[in-house]
Fold each of these.
Amino acid sequence: MKRYLALFKSLFKELFLTSKDSVFWLTIFPTILFLILTSIFGNVEGNVQFRVKVLGDSEMLKGILDNIEQMDAEFIQDYSQETIDALKVELERDNIDAILILPNDFDKLYSTSLLLRKTFLFRQVPVELYDVPLRQSSAIASDVIKGIFGSMDIPENVGYEVHNLSGEQYDYNNFIYPGIIGMTIMSVFLCAFMSYLIYFRRKKILRKISTTPISMINVYLTTAAVNLIALIIGLCGLSIVAYFLGVDVVTYLPSMIVHTLIACAVLTMMTLVVMTFSSNSSGLFVFQQVFLQIQMFAGGFYFPLKVLTPFIRKLANFLPITYTVDGIRSAKGLNSLNTNHYIVPLIYLLLSTLIVLFRSRKLTVLQ
């Protein structure tokens, strides 16, 4: 019995306690993943806000809409046809979910129609509603407004006209395509690139190369170039498949090239920065996986940023690949961010490059 107990202690110490990978994956990572997922998906219903623009004034509707927690309604009293046209564009770009146009003195006209509805003097009150039924949030917002009108007995008293702005049918394939590109970039330039460098250190390959005239920086950059070729091959295969599945690859292509190259440079320099601060393969692996999970789940890769909690949305604004994916989506008007898509990644690139230059000696130190 003592021998088995000694064997158990020895194996437990060797395979678990002395292995930082095991400690991380078996004890810490499940908790991190749980916190990430619950913070993102734990209150999806409460996070959804239906953005409605109401052109006109109505104290009656304003009181009703203010009592609906998920309804973010803005009343615009002074407007023109140019205002309507501009809002239609915003609606098709998914910046708002519905447009409701009321006539002047809506409350007065509605009250009058109620009083006269049994007489020959009855006139319906004209109301217009614009939505995009192909988009779920817009369709739900439209249904909510119709439900409000139904509860007010409006169908009998209002000339109710619905305008369905379909534009192009942006299905999930078009939406997810940039997200898969972002995931591929991270897989190649965060996971594979860092893993190669860790392998070089562990197998003492860098020590052998140091006996040649080739500098360590050139080794790192050459490895990045090889990864770039692998990425191009992977994206070509992805794009061919996506094209046959109805994705508008041609429209995406210019923004995909620009944002992908910037993202590759950012992740290359970030990886080198991390390696200047740590030579421990377990620590590097932990950083790799934590950053990957946070960027993947909080960066809007697989779903719109607007369904996330306010904290996660703010966090996404500080993640560089968020702007890569959202910048590619902007070519089809599917972006969630209205800010410049280059500033944050270029700041990351600049700071990372400066750190690498100041700490370049750490990259040449052989472990």
Amino acid sequence: MNIDQMLKNTTNVSIPNEIIDALITLHDNGEFKEILSRFPNLTKLYPNNSKLLNIMGVILSKNDSKLEAIETFKKAIKFDTKNPHPYNNLGITLIDINEFEKAEKILHKAILLFPEFIETYFNLVNLYKTNKEYPKAIKIFKKCIIHNPNNLETYKNLFWILKKTNAFNELDQLINQALNRIKYLSNKDAIIWEKWVAMCLHEMAEIHENNHRYIEAKKKYYRAIQIKKDYTPSLNNLSNLLFKEGNKEKALKYLKISRKIQHNNITILNNIAVIYMQKKNYYLAIKYLNKALTQDKISYKLVTNLSMCYINLFNDKKAIQNFKILKNYLIDTKNFSNNNLFFLKQILFFITYLNHLSD
């Protein structure tokens, strides 16, 4: 049944939900002119209907009739003070015309009246983010979490702001707050939250590592792995950090855990091989390098490491053979980028050097 038929069949004082749904469908399909053509008749039949006025305001705003939209939202609020949508949409439209103080005031009022209506918090925060008023944005999101503690998007956005402002203590508090909520969630949601918390801890660890705060970085990597045992980014970064510190055994431990999750990951296989090379266990290193080379036969790094293993085992012939395979590939592809030219020079040097040793 179309809107015209619905109007003929209705004598209710309040607008039927079917008409509202039909208008929303037209809106979602972008048929704004069609909706506007219906409004004169609809507003005559339902002059004081907040839902109808709210939809009309949204369409007017999208058609750049901002001032008319603002008056329409105000009417919608007047006729129904318990509907959060006109308050929220009024705030958005005021932001569109740069009436930031008025927008802030109406959005604050909406949050006070409808503390569980999440969309308003995000619109107010977007206003603060635009104006780089991050302390205000943080305060609003914290308030949102109090009233809507199971909304992960709020935590995600608050994490972004806290990270941007280097508020590490508050980041730790947010992580603890999120972890405390997990026990109240379904198993499906808990898995999503745990992965997000692990990702946050990993990002915090990387910030610490980039700033040479290695002890703090390790703590965060360890905690990420405790929360999500198969979180490979933290497993890999932690193993690299431990390796740099000279703790080869622990580095190897975490790399092998990573490999159980990502069997054929070239970086993991190469890193395991490098540790075995450091431990002078060249046969085991060769085993992992050959496994990696099944995934990428022409990796300069892998071939170089493999050749170095053979050199250390006094098998120069095998080392030369591997270098020649890579040399022929680089020449055949005729892809002489700066990197490939550098690799080619290095390979030719090694081949010449090893041939000289053989003579």
